[in-house]
Design a protein that fits this description.
This protein has 163 residues and is mostly helical. The chain has a single domain, classed as Tetracycline Repressor, domain 2 (Orthogonal Bundle), CATH 1.10.357. Helix content is 71%, strand content 0%. It is built from 9 helices and no strands. Helix 3 packs across helix 6, helix 5 runs parallel beside helix 8 and helix 5 runs antiparallel to helix 9. The radius of gyration is 18 Å and the shape is elongated. GO terms for molecular function: DNA-binding transcription factor activity; transcription cis-regulatory region binding. InterPro entries: Homeodomain-like_sf, HTH-type_TetR-like_transc_reg, HTH_TetR, KstR2_TetR_C, Tet_transcr_reg_TetR-rel_C_sf. This is HTH tetR-type domain-containing protein. It holds the Pfam family TetR_N. Keywords: DNA-binding, Transcription, Transcription regulation.
């Protein structure tokens, strides 16, 4: 907390005037990333249209949120459930994955994804693919603007050449 107050240019006691402690800061940071993800689910292209198109849109937007909120998303991906706040964040992440699994189910029912794909596994793989980006993505590098579309194309079309 002392480092944070110093970086903010205020005293430690002034810092505590605005926040109660580390747990409140953690929750605020986690809320920022989670709110960004859940907001996607309410966007027009995520709520209307063919299920597979909605799924593509959500994956693209997940990458965009990750890029825009990289430190906060990285923090979210590092929580392990050691505190009440971390458990809350993990539960919200599970809710997001459940919403994606439901959309995969809809897409399978519409014949837009393979029927033999387990929706829960697909949702975890989609999120895992996007989440792995925090390990190697660096803002400002060439290709950063194309990353969301590159991820969508690779996930939904694969890496194998077409015959």
């Amino acid at each position: 907390m002392e480092d944070l107050s110093r970086a903010a240019g205020i005293t430690k006691s002034s810092f505590y005037h605005h926040v109660s402690g580390k747990e409140e800061l953690l929750r605020a940071a986690l809320e920022r990333s989670l709110d960004g993800l859940f907001a996607i689910l309410d966007e027009r292209h995520a709520t209307s249209g063919r299920p597979v198109d909605r799924l593509r849109y959500i994956v693209r937007r997940q990458v965009e949120v990750l890029q825009a909120e990289l430190p906060y998303v990285t923090l979210l991906l590092r929580v392990r459930g050691n505190t009440e706040t971390e458990r809350w964040a993990l539960e919200r992440r599970r809710s997001f994955d459940a919403a994606i699994a439901e959309l995969v189910r809809e897409a399978a029912g519409a014949g837009q994804v393979r029927a033999d794909v387990d929706p829960a596994v697909a949702a975890k793989l989609l999120s895992g693919t996007v989440n792995s980006i925090v390990e190697w993505y660096r803002p400002g590098r060439p290709g950063a603007d194309a990353l969301p579309e590159d991820v969508v194309r690779t996930v939904f079309e694969g890496v194998l050449a077409r015959d």
